[in-house]
Design goal:
The protein is built from eleven helices and seven strands. The protein is of the alpha/beta class. It has a five-stranded parallel beta sheet with strand order 5-4-1-6-7, with helices on both faces. A two-stranded antiparallel ribbon has the order 2-3. Helix 1 packs across helix 2 and helix 4 packs antiparallel against helix 5.
Length: 208
């Protein structure tokens, strides 16, 4: 009987794994009340337009325009403030560089597979200290596909000639992990850095 293949590739999601998509904290920094934060969460961050940004179907200015047209007039200044400073909505986690560097030093290939708006992605990802260490990535908005659509996982596989049986995918969403598993790529649903390290060790993945 053939043994299980050795892991060679680590594939990370970005938001809530390597980058803190701190939209609530960002809105709080803008001075928004709890009620306004909840409203923006429902009507902006989790809106159809945000999904269209992730899919690369619209640009940020299109989303701003649609929201200004559709949301109550009282939110006009808040909407403009939100988009004027939107690059402040995400920051790199303190552990991310050492995590990626440790994996690279141990001989693994490291890739990114993330649902992310293009303009924000270009700004946020370029600011990440670990980006120069990455072997490759697929950003949803650049391929007009979003997880958990199997096609976006296949796009990563085909672009970098990955063997999914030699790969582990880390994502904070169960549905995205389930899609990975269905394609033969092992998955870890991210709950926090310490647990990730423990689960890596259980799977024989060396992180330092």
């Amino acid at each position: 009987m053939t043994g299980k293949k050795k892991i060679k590739n680590i594939v990370f999601d970005m938001g809530f794994v390597l980058i803190d998509f701190r939209w609530r904290g960002y809105l709080k920094d803008l001075g928004f009340s709890k009620e306004k934060i909840d409203f923006f969460g429902e009507n902006v961050v989790n809106s159809t337009y945000w999904h269209q940004l992730d899919m690369g179907l619209i640009k940020q200015e299109d989303a701003r325009r649609h929201l200004l047209e559709e949301l109550p007039e009282e939110y006009k200044d808040d909407i403009n403030l939100f988009w004027d400073r939107v690059n402040e909505i995400a920051i790199e986690y303190p552990y991310s560089y050492e995590l990626v560097k440790g994996l690279k030093d141990a001989g693994y290939n490291v890739y990114l597979l993330s649902n992310y708006p293009e303009e924000m992605g270009e700004a946020h990802w370029a600011a990440c200290s670990f980006l120069p260490l990455i072997d490759g990535y697929i950003m949803s908005s650049k391929v007009n596909l979003c997880k958990p659509d199997p096609a976006i996982y296949k796009a990563l596989r085909d672009k970098y000639a990955l063997d999914f049986s030699e790969s582990i995918f880390i994502d904070d969403r169960e549905d995205n992990c389930e899609a990975s598993l269905a394609l033969g790529m092992e998955a870890i649903c991210f709950k926090g850095y310490e647990e990730l390290i423990r689960l890596f060790k259980e799977r024989g993945v060396v992180t330092e």
